[in-house]
Amino acid sequence: MLRILPFLALVLLLSGCGVDADQEMLCRRLIPAFDGGPVTGLSAQAIAEDRRVVRIDYRAGGQAHWIACRFAGTAMEEGRRTLAAVATDRTGWLREMRFAMLMQWLRIKPADAAVAGDRPERAGPTRWTPVLFLLQQVINAATVACVYGLLALGYTLVYAILGQINLAMGELTMLGAMMTAMAAAGLGMAGWAGWPPALLGVLALVMGFTAVQGWAMDRLVFRRLRGVRSHTPLIIAVGLSIAYQEGMRLLHGARDWWPAPVLTGRHELLSDGAFTVTALSAQFAILALTAGLYALLWGIIQRTAFGRAHRACTDDVAAAELVGVDVNRTVAATFAIGGGLAAAAGAVIALYYGGVNFFTGYLIGFKALAAAVVGGIGSVPGAMLGGALLGVVETFWSAYFALAYKDIVAFGLLALFLIYRPQGLLGQARGRGD
């Protein structure tokens, strides 16, 4: 058995895949149906929220475009070569009649028609291929970890000071994602879609708006429930979550929003001829954004009057109030900061993954809460550590095992931590002052 284990590990490494080559090639063959001129700068990625969707980014006529193909199964399931739906940045998801016409066009189109930029035939796997694939998954996991980490910070800041979980925080992420998608559409019409200052302006606007939403949540709802020692605040949070979802659905409909891709430059880091480790410019930007926001938050908590007040309220709210700390102002500012961080996570989802809708914050919110609990809810470093751990688990499971069980594994991890280490990795088991 010991001799077989290394061989099984190698098989697992070789069996995982990022973007299925057959799915990518089929999706590329559809591009001439929408763009007749030369096509360059092609890059493919699988959508994290639905691995059945392959998205191809490309340039045609000097402009950036994308096409997304949804298949009946992932690379590890039946139906992986059966095309189920197609979307583009200009049409959205095609309606049934247009999709049927596209399928008819695909059957008529010669199978060997080439798209500029198609990948040449690659060499067979080498002994370094599994290592390079592993490194690629680490890079992919870093982006997912940033999303979970930013939202987990919002959860952990509020819990640290109140001992209550605001389940509506995920809907602030949804709000940030939807606003970013709509703003990105406006920038695209103005020709500023890829201009970094414009993107930073959108990020600041969205974070400011959701910060006000977070402040309003505390001022209008949670402040009135500050002394309640029942499940009422939790029930109110669930109600707020549903209200945000339904409000967004009624205002903007249930359709998905797919912003035009930004910072799509692809950088080849390592290669053995059979597999190339790549990273997008957007991934570097996401890592820099997350690191900057975390460093800013750490500095605020450690070196400002608000940070001292927050730490005092975290230790004992009653004692902090006795020594002159304005608890109401501190809690309201905490809700605002948490809302801004949630919006940053939503902006990353919208601009990097796409496909946002009124339901985007539901599952993401619960997963970020799982990350906060695993890392130690109430601990700022623990929130980032939990996000990193959950991102690694999800990404590696998706790459090496059956994708359908990804969420079961994520929430199973939460259950194990709640059973065997309720305080999380960096949390502390302690009582709270009244």
TrEMBL record:
Signal peptide (UniProt feature, chain positions): 1-21
Membrane topology, record value: Multi-pass membrane protein
Subcellular location: Cell membrane
CDD domains listed in its UniProt record: TM_PBP1_LivH_like
InterPro entries: ABC_transp_permease, BCAA_transport_permease
Keyword vocabulary terms for this entry: Amino-acid transport, Cell inner membrane, Cell membrane, Membrane, Signal, Transmembrane, Transmembrane helix, Transport
Pfam families, A to Z: BPD_transp_2 (PF02653)
Coiled coil: none
Highest rank taxon of the organism: Bacteria
Record field: transmembrane: 138-162, 174-192, 198-216, 274-301, 331-356, 368-393, 399-420
UniProt-listed PANTHER family: BRANCHED-CHAIN AMINO ACID TRANSPORT SYSTEM PERMEASE PROTEIN LIVH, HIGH-AFFINITY BRANCHED-CHAIN AMINO ACID TRANSPORT SYSTEM PERMEASE PROTEIN LIVH
Protein family according to the UniProt entry: Belongs to the binding-protein-dependent transport system permease family. LivHM subfamily.
Protein name according to UniProt: Branched-chain amino acid transport system permease protein
